[in-house]
Design goal:
Pfam families: RNase_H (PF00075). By secondary structure, the protein is of the alpha/beta class. It has helices spanning 39-59, 68-78, 80-84, 87-90, 97-111, 119-126, 131-149, 152-157, 171-175, 182-192, 209-212, 226-235, 275-290, 306-314, 323-337, 354-365, 380-402, 408-413, 431-442, 448-454, 472-478, 483-497, 506-512, 516-521, 526-535; strands at 13-14, 17-18, 24-27, 30-33, 217-219, 239-247, 252-258, 263-268, 298-303, 341-346, 370-371. Helix content is 49%, strand content 9%. A hairpin with a 2-residue loop joins β3 and β4. α7 (131-149) packs antiparallel against α17, α13 (275-290) runs parallel beside α15 (323-337) and α22 packs across α23 (506-512).
């Protein structure tokens, strides 16, 4: 394969044997063409992903089928995985929008949405991000891993200084189809994550094998009041050190409190550090303090971070683990060689345990604060979380700007980007229930007003009373054919909102009920609303 506009007329010979020239070749699952436009590879991805999409299509309809959580999991595993692989290569291809069509089809199957439903609304409802953001997320995570592992990678990708300052990609640019080129992404990563830990060898392989497998002493007893804990400490003659970590929008701090010396100190960390990193660094500082304490060989470090205690217990060879955990293991191993026993113990927070309350206040107030933000490097896992937050912020901006054109109704129902889809917490909900509520939330359903807007039916009037425009608000509030069912709906909703209005005045009770938009914001109204729809309109 020749990557050039000038094709040699006499061919290519090797030991007087002609070498055939091809226009494309598959290497490690990626179809590379001689123009590097990756059109053939994208078509190859589409062919493979459609097979998985057909499986999903066979598992669910509008009123029947698998749970949307299962469908989302299947989509991510057998369809989107094809999009993720080698996306770094084809991310700037002109044909990349073909993949968006495949994802949009999958989102309609998962959510049970109509073809007219806005794409951005379906992405938010299912919590499956746009593919352009997904590619940006994967590329940034991969490049961060490369840059943190080798200082020379940045110089190879960006061998010369950029003439202009690098700015954060905006949601508006992504909405218009712009995608940043690789050198700009690398330069941005290098500026945003200057303090990330950089090492050519993973921390789990720096220390000896005997150090890594060294068993951490964990005191498994649980104490929920201060008196019992102090009695236990006194009976076992422990020298106690309390640790804590605190994170807010303004700071990330670790703190250590020596209950024997009545001395506490806090440590200011990089803002990108997680609260878990703050907790483990506090434990590391407590271990360092032990080296300066003489005439004691039995120490107890008390923390309210159960995740840190569990991580120390299960720590083995894993490059994804926080590097500070291995530093803690190394100190524990060295103390054990000297005959110094150090144990860890979990204590519940905010239970009146004096030492824990003091160290918590030290961390929040920054007592005797020492700035170590430039010394303590940010773990790679914390940077991943920071990248996830940045991409989610782009998603919110992306979604808000798109609402200016379409999806305004859904924007009033779902005002913020959800942590998870609303139906994830349902245990015994039918497929019909989920799709009906989804269509109500989208504002795109089979009511006459919407079908007439699409040109499917001629009249937009209600097919039951034929007196008014047949939209959702009409069916719920004013259609005279559903007066009895409306009374039941009002009664059930009134019980939910604990409305103390008499039964004799149903119009007054109805006026006190939430609007359709308010009903769809609150999951507690979904069951009576679904019952009303099934007993009146039938299906949406």
């Amino acid at each position: 394969m020749i990557f050039s506009k000038d094709f040699p007329s006499n061919g290519i010979l090797y030991n007087n044997h002609p070498i055939s020239v091809v226009s494309n070749h598959k290497f490690l699952g990626v179809v590379i063409d001689n123009k590097l436009c990756f059109n053939l590879h994208i078509n190859h991805i589409i062919t493979n992903s459609l097979k998985g999409l057909n499986i999903i299509r066979c598992l669910a309809g509008v009123t029947w089928g698998a749970d949307p959580k299962v469908l989302s999991m299947l989509y991510k595993s057998i369809v989107r995985s094809h999009f993720d692989y080698s996306c770094l290569a084809y991310s700037n291809s002109s044909c990349v929008k073909k993949l968006d069509i495949i994802q949009n089809k999958a989102l309609r199957i998962i959510s049970g949405a109509m073809c007219s439903t806005p794409i951005r609304a379906m992405e938010v409802e299912t919590k499956i991000m746009p593919l352009c953001l997904r590619r940006l997320l994967l590329i940034e995570r991969y490049l961060l891993k490369l840059v943190s592992g080798n200082d020379n990678v940045l110089k190879k990708i960006v061998p010369f200084p950029l003439q202009c300052s690098v700015q954060q990609t905006s949601g508006g640019e992504l909405l218009q189809g712009y995608f940043p080129v690789l050198p700009l992404i690398v330069q941005q990563m290098n500026e945003d994550f200057k303090n990330v830990i950089k090492q050519s060898k993973w921390t789990c392989y720096i220390y000896p094998y005997s150090c890594i497998i060294f068993e951490t002493n964990i005191v498994t007893k649980n104490f929920f009041n201060n008196c019992e804990l102090l009695s236990f400490i006194s009976d076992n003659n422990y020298y106690t050190l309390y640790t804590d970590g605190s994170k807010s929008e303004l700071f990330v701090r670790s703190a250590v409190y020596d209950s024997q010396c009545k001395f506490g100190q806090s440590f200011l960390l990089d803002p990108k550090c997680s609260v878990f990193t703050a907790e483990v660094y506090a434990a590391l500082e407590a271990l360092k303090r032990i080296a300066h304490i003489n005439s004691f060989n039995n120490f107890l470090i008390l923390t309210d971070s159960l995740s840190m205690v569990q991580s120390l217990t299960n720590l083995r060879f894993d490059f994804k683990k926080n590097y500070i955990l291995y530093n803690i293991k190394q100190l524990l191993f060295s103390y054990a060689k000297k005959g110094i026993q150090v144990s860890f113990m979990w204590i519940p927070s905010h239970r009146g345990i004096t030492g824990n309350e003091i160290v918590d206040k030290i961390a929040r107030d920054g007592t005797n604060m020492l700035d170590v933000s430039s010394i303590v490097k940010v773990p790679l896992t914390d940077c991943y979380q920071s990248i996830d937050n940045q991409v989610n912020s782009l998603w919110v901006e992306f979604w808000k700007q798109d609402q200016e054109q379409k999806g305004k109704w859904y924007g009033t129902v779902q005002e913020k980007l959800p942590v998870a889809p609303w139906y994830n917490k349902l245990k015994m909900a039918s497929r019909d229930f989920v799709t009906t509520i989804n269509r109500l939330r989208f504002g795109h359903s089979t009511v006459p007003a919407h079908l007439a807007r699409l040109g499917i039916v001629e009249s937009s009037y209600c097919t039951f009373c034929n007196n008014s425009v047949g939209d959702i608000e009409h069916f719920i509030f004013t259609c005279e054919c559903f007066s009895f069912d409306r009374l039941i709906l009002v009664s059930e909703i009134s019980d939910i909102v604990q409305n103390q209005v008499t039964v004799q005045d149903p119009s007054r009770r109805l006026s006190n009920c939430p609007t359709p938009g308010d009903m769809l914001k609150n999951r507690s109204y979904y069951v009576p609303l679904y019952k009303f729809i099934k007993n009146t309109v039938g299906k949406l």
